[in-house]
Amino acid sequence: MKIPAVPVVVATLLSAAVFAASLNAQTAAPSPALPPPGLDDPGVQAGPPPAASSAAPADAPKPDLRPLTLPAMKSGDSRMGRPADEPEVSIRQQGDNTVQEYSRNGRVYMVVVTPRHGPQQTYMVDPQGQWVDERGQRRATPTLYKVLEWGKSPPATRPDEGAVAAPASSSSR
Fold it and tell me: Considering the entire predicted model, what is its pTM?
């Protein structure tokens, strides 16, 4: 079997070029870094201002810098994130906790519980009456598995697992 000469020559030249490039890439010596300035060094002095030729021409129109008057907004405009009516807040003490209930149109939408010691807890209610967190997500319910229970006997083994089954007791005494 004869190997064509052209692919062998191309592969040899390509590998030589890669090898030479890697040698050249590592030969550049880094330039020495400047020493840090002294503690009493005044630093760089400010230079003269730039020439006046970069200024705007005198015949350019001046911009109107008067403040703009915006249209008045209603206090209940819901497009600006403000509700149409103000919420009713009822504050009550429940043990050591202060409970604030926020309601609108007779429906509670947020409950804030502030314990005497510890962080404040906020509970939100969506329009369907489900509890949600501050971002509108329902609370995650973790999956719980019973791994071990104290005070119970271990489960009985089946006969095919190698354990000998206990004989059934007879009640003919």
Answer: 0.34
